[in-house]
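On clarity, I found the account of how folds are encoded harder to follow than it need be. An entry of this sort, consisting of the sequence and the corresponding backbone structure tokens, reads as follows:
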Amino acid sequence: MLPYYNSTRAISFFLRSCSLKIKVEVCGYPLSIFFIVVNEFCERFSYYGMRAVLVLYFRYFLKWDDDLATSIYHTFVALCYLTPILGAIVADSWLGKFKTIVYLSIVYTLGQVVMAVSAIHDLTDTDMDGVPNNMVVHVALSMTGLLLIALGTGGIKPCVAAFGGDQFEDHQEKQRSTFFSIFYLSINAGSLLSTIITPILRAQECGIHSQQKCYPLAFGVPAALMVVALIVFISGSSMYTKTAPKGNIMLEVCKCIGFAIHNRFRHRSKKFPKREHWMDWADEKYDKLLVAQVKMVLKVLFLYIPLPMFWTLFDQQGSRWTLQATTMDGDFTVNPILILIMVPVMDSVIYPLIKKCHLNFTPLKRMTVGMFVAAMAFVAAALLQLQIDQTLPQLPSGAEGQVKFVNLNNENLSVAIEGTDYNVPPFQVSGDYLTFDKPFNVALTKNNVTKKDNLTLKSQTRQTTLVGPSLDLRMVTDLTRKPEEGMNAVRFVNGFGAALNVSFVGTIEPLDISNYTNIKQGPAEFRITNTGGQSCLYNKQMGFGSSFTFVIPSTFDIQSSNCKQAIQAVEDIKPNTIHMGWQIPQYFLMTSGEVVFSVTGLEFSYSQAPSNMKSVLQAGWLLTVAVGNIIVLIVAEAAQLPDQWAEYILFASLLVLVCIIFGIMSYFYTYTDPAEIEARFALPEYDPEEKKKKKDSIVMEWKDSLKRKVSGSRKRSNSSKGSDKQDNDELKQSRM
């Protein structure tokens, strides 16, 4: 019993000692902030790393189309920016910032782990072919993971920076300002590294039964970083300044606004006099200072109404622009690098230059310019998309089908289709695809022998027709879209008289065609081996997103040093020819717009916000991001435009329209000084205590005055009675 008692006391003492605050400073800074900065770096790496490959995971692992992948992506981002309001309320009203960060970080970490597990294709790959057999399991796991991540990352977003600010004393204003700069730098550093590293991890191949794109690794590393973030943050527990919850100002503001609306509705009759501002109807219950502060907040929030459209365009960098890049040549990351470059360039070069030119470039004017520049980024994206569309294959639509013929004979083949003759040399292809929207007649002629047939093509399909030695036809289905993820789809036609084995493809029987096999970009080597073990090495340089059919003729001599020259390469789908570098202009414009709009917007909001309501405007700012992502879903679904460039122009036009509206609103906006307004209410006439004392003094004076009046009245009454008695006595004496 004694050892148990002693161990219990030791644990209790340890927990009490951990709860004590240990004040340690390094170079004038609290040591605790270093734990917070490292935590923020790891958390941002985790979030942006996962988000960098999320739309590709939807598109290529879950096999969703572009529209569904885009919709779910923006729904997730919207949730991430809606939950900060919940996190702020929980932290300020119940748990405090420290516990809120810890608890929601655990939820966040679980979400990242669930996402990593959902990407393991071997989880349901029962037939071991590399394709999950139960996609419902993967979808359910991924949606659960994303929900937990949205709750976690959004919940801690308003708490971490504020918790870092709490670590400084009142005399450390300079250090606090430097901390926020370092804090913002850690966010961008985590974003930059993750958006470079995570796509590289995804490009690796992994798996138990088959090697596929390594999404588990791409999601697993961010999950590991989130574990590190949680451990690092908890490690500094004993050094933190932990303020107790003091009630959420956001709730107080909402209650005040609600009471004003309710009170105004109750006094809607014309017999009640109008008040200068509708918030003045809250004066009966709330302090005049709070009402004045709410007025200032509402004035800024009114300007926020057009802002979501900027985020509608900005956040499509992770969806539409990422999908646009998959149809281009190359692979690189540019946006985070541009952000790190443009922020100091704007602050150190552009803004000082404008100031020297004596231009009144106010914050609201900067934001208007930022919105216009972002709209121009989408115009650039539309122009680029027009060029990309010209390189894409003209695929069949509606009832159309496409066909071409491969001659597997040693003689020339004449193909007559609807009165048009096509001459196909031995082991060659008839040329480009022919398009038909109804059944057609075909006449095949070889050595004066003609065979006629009637062919019907399936709608919206491409087919290759193999013509054998007996003019027999075999139709195989071709690709109707570019290969995924920039891969190259290749297949072999064996016109040789014996079976051949092709590396990466498998064994092909005589006069047969293989299935498509995906090959990476770069030099590809195919070893062709006959049944006797002799082989020939065939080389082909592969680009991005092409499709080839390689025809091996009957004259193929596997022992010849020039054996590879006999193989005919037929290009079914051309490779991507426009380099990703052409996306730099649109990213440059968007990043410039972000720096001018976002940084200035936060600066403006804080300058116009009351001292105790910065968090309210921060929540309002994050809410505009959420609404912007919801607008993407609404516009994309409602517009249903057939061409992607047209959708880009639509979004650019909407932002230009909103930009004009915001410019008009800004013109009529009057800048205020919250400190000056709050200082007025610090005067005695606005001090509640002074007002109470003054009121009590007035009441006391009134009571004293009333007492004096009553006392004087009584004296006059008594005096009058005495005088009357004397007069009566004198009258009696005169009568006697």
Confidence is low (pLDDT under 50) at residues 1-5, 11-19, 730-736. The chain is about 55% helix and 15% strand.
